[in-house]
């Protein structure tokens, strides 16, 4: 891994949308907005307010059509991701940015939006644990880690894993020293009293309850993945 010349100004941005999980965006923002010699902007379909899954409002800097070419694109997840899987403006934006971006950085089920843009084919990737079974439908190789780096694609597990991933991205842009300085400034030193942070450590009743709550959205995500897979197979057959 080689770092970018510190004299090179970096343009970092996030695609935000209704019913995203705000921590998928704001967690990484804490680190990425502090990258030396960089500018951070947020983008949405238009410049009106965006509401997260629980009503927190954000005001995008620019619309997708106004976005410059980015060095890093952050794609957060959340239930609202599913409504965008067939939105060609959004999927086309991600696909177009990926052609020239240094890195595409997905958090949680933002990976599935990247999948719909064709960015996961043959790539090692991760996502929220409830959606891991969806990844192969987009041609990805699922990896059950909090942060997975495969070339220019960085993906993370659910929600808080985005903070871990953002520090990795900082290290790839400006070096480990910068990542550690930002980590210290953020006082990012998790020391929770609970052990339910992953399916492997959660009490069985907690795991069952959360899995049941996610069942409906997980089913919709599987359906979208099957549509993508069927469409991709059609393209391949047509090409032959």
TrEMBL record:
Biological process, per Gene Ontology: regulation of DNA-templated transcription
CDD domains, sorted: GATase1_PfpI_2
Pfam families, per database record: DJ-1_PfpI (PF01965)
UniProt domain DJ-1/PfpI: residue ranges: 15-164
Secretion signal, residue range per the UniProt entry: none
Protein name (record): DJ-1/PfpI family protein
Organism: Dyella solisilvae
């Amino acid at each position: 891994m080689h770092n970018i010349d510190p004299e090179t100004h970096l343009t970092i941005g996030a695609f935000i949308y209704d019913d995203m999980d705000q921590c998928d965006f704001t967690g990484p923002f804490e680190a990425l907005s502090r990258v030396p010699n960089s500018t951070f902007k947020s983008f949405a379909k238009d410049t009106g307010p965006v509401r997260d899954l629980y009503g927190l409002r954000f005001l995008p800097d620019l619309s997708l059509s106004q976005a410059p070419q980015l060095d890093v694109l952050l794609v957060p997840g959340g239930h609202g991701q599913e409504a965008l899987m067939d939105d060609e403006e959004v999927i086309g934006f991600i696909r177009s940015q990926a052609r020239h971006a240094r890195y595409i950085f997905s958090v949680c089920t933002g990976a599935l939006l990247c999948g719909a843009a064709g960015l996961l084919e043959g790539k090692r990737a991760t996502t929220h644990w409830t959606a891991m079974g969806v990844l192969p439908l987009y041609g990805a190789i699922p990896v059950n880690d909090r942060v997975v780096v495969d070339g220019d694609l960085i993906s993370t597990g659910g929600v808080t894993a985005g903070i871990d991933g953002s520090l990795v991205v900082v290290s790839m842009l400006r070096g480990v020293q910068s990542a550690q300085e930002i980590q210290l400034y953020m006082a990012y030193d998790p020391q929770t009293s609970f052990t339910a942070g992953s399916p492997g450590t959660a009490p069985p009743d907690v795991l069952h309850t959360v899995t049941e709550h996610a069942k409906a959205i997980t089913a919709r995500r599987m359906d979208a993945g099957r549509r993508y897979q069927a469409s991709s197979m059609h393209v391949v057959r047509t090409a032959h």
